[in-house]
Design brief:
mainly alpha
Length: 358
């Protein structure tokens, strides 16, 4: 009776697993003999055992019907933990498995990427190869694995930046996000800023996310151009781009002062995350934001209560003077919040007491 395609695939994977196990046993036996322990052989034996761990885990995943959800991923990680040889990075095994013709082996190899050690160019190439020959959930998993690269070398980051130009949109977005999480250099910042103006909205979201995740952004030189590009992104039609641009400007700190007026306008945005990060970015500007907050407060901004909160949080003398203007606001709630804010800052002048008592 002929076997169906799924059954044939399972048998092929089973035979591959037995073959790897047999070769691994012979290899480890050979390296355990005194004179046979030459330079490099113990590492090769560990790599072979890592390959056995990947292949046998893939076989067990296949027994579950090839599921690749989060629960299956956690089970696969547990199986890898129990089988992975102590002290092994398994670099060769991971690289070979990322290029395997079997999708399940590639998927298990992606789960093993955090074990690889310092990320290098071969690992970046392996992940790109895996993403190119995969589709659907597996392609998404290959893209997501870029952020799992540990301590990438400068060469690896350069390979990731270069790959952004040629990769498909899904992989490019994943690369941009990973660059933001992993990099600390101005070249990566500039690449992210370049793609922030891309015509594809998904690419812009990926670049904005990368810039928001770039922890070293505020410490980088020549950020004036970055502030200009990020300010332009505040007008993007996609709320994720707007929110991430606000988050990135918050990292820049007082240098983001030229963007304050636009950030104040976003306090009325319909998306909560945009409002949250716009508020944080304004607060990060400190006294540099007070003049713009004064104009917005006296102009009857619909988010005047939030303006009062910002001024109270800044708390400087200049902010206190601006808060005095809130006592004359048309909205009684704004007047009350302004008086409470001033009282909390230690200002108990007659106008403040009049509002509090009245």
């Amino acid at each position: 009776m002929p076997l169906d395609r799924k059954a044939r695939r399972r048998w092929m994977l089973l035979l591959s697993a037995f073959g790897v196990l047999a070769v691994g046993f012979l290899w480890v036996s050979a390296t355990s003999e005194g004179d046979a322990r030459g330079a490099g052989q113990p590492d090769a034996a560990l790599d072979m055992r890592a390959q056995v761990a990947i292949t046998s885990t893939a076989l067990q995943v296949q027994s579950l019907g090839g599921l690749r959800g989060e629960m299956a991923a956690q089970l696969a990680r547990d199986w890898l933990d129990s089988r992975w040889p102590a002290g092994a990075t398994g670099r060769s095994a991971i690289l070979a498995s990322l290029r395997s013709s079997d999708e399940t082996i590639r998927w298990v190899a992606l789960l093993a990427v955090p074990r690889y050690g310092p990320g290098d160019v071969p690992l970046v190439d392996g992940l790109l190869h895996c993403a190119r020959r995969s589709s659907g959930d597996l392609q998404a998993a290959a893209g997501a694995a870029f952020k799992d690269i540990a301590r990438p070398t400068d060469e690896a980051l350069e390979a990731m930046r270069a790959a952004c130009q040629e990769a498909d949109v899904s992989t490019r977005v994943a690369l941009l996000r990973a660059i933001g999480l992993l990099a600390r250099d101005t070249m990566s910042r500039d690449v992210l800023l370049e793609f922030l103006g891309d015509s594809d909205p998904r690419t812009r979201v990926g670049a904005a996310y990368g810039l928001a995740a770039l922890e070293a952004l505020g410490e980088m030189p020549d950020n004036d151009g970055a502030v200009v590009r990020l300010t332009e992104a505040l007008d993007d039609a996609d709320p994720h781009v707007r929110a991430c641009a606000c988050r990135a400007l918050q990292r820049v700190g007082p240098l983001a002062a030229p963007a304050v007026e636009r950030l104040i306008a976003l306090l009325g945005d319909e998306h909560r995350q945009v409002v949250r990060w716009a508020t944080s970015a304004i607060l990060g500007c400190g006294d540099e934001a007070v003049d713009s907050l004064r104009w917005a407060l006296t102009d009857g901004h619909p988010a005047s209560l939030r303006l009062v909160w910002l001024l109270r949080s800044i708390g400087s003398k200049q902010a206190q003077q601006t808060l005095m203007l809130s006592l004359e606001h048309d909205d009684p709630f704004v007047r009350a919040e302004g008086a409470i804010a001033l009282h909390a800052l230690g200002v108990d002048d007659a106008p403040v007491l009049a509002v509090l008592v009245g």
